[in-house]
């Protein structure tokens, strides 16, 4: 069980899923899902909301689990975490491809990459469709965390394709 040089497409897939992992961690943890400005007592303050906390100026507060959060928001949180966990699983399998000679591992990595992409798709699509109730578009724009999740989705699809390509090229 030593290191073996995999097909170049597998390496590209590993890089794609690794970057998707980093993007998803930032997307889940940071406060940049909705960004905007609010006026309080004649002062304009930058405001950001994430999945777990929100910041106004220099102070941040947790978005409580005990609060009466809408179901769609809980679903976005759930799919964000599930997507992150599936990406981790895909990353582990992709690394194993370099050390184990098993013809099923690239297919398992591809399936995991596509499942992760599906989770991320649900995450950002539901947020984009339902956010008006939580962060109205007149005040808030979609932020960098939303963008990172969309790019992570595209990287997961690219990784899945890269893991499948060697099977067809022989």
UniProtKB/TrEMBL annotation:
In terms of superkingdom, the source organism counts as Eukaryota
Q: One Pfam family of this protein, by short name?
A: PMP22_Claudin
What are the record keywords, sorted? Membrane, Transmembrane, Transmembrane helix
- Just give the chief location class: membrane
Q: Where are the transmembrane segments?
A: 7-35, 78-100, 107-129, 141-165
Membrane topology qualifier: Multi-pass membrane protein
Q: Which PANTHER family match?
A: CLAUDIN FAMILY PROTEIN-RELATED (PTHR10671:SF108), EPITHELIAL MEMBRANE PROTEIN-RELATED (PTHR10671)
Name of the protein this chain belongs to: Uncharacterized protein
Q: Which organism is it from?
A: Batillaria attramentaria
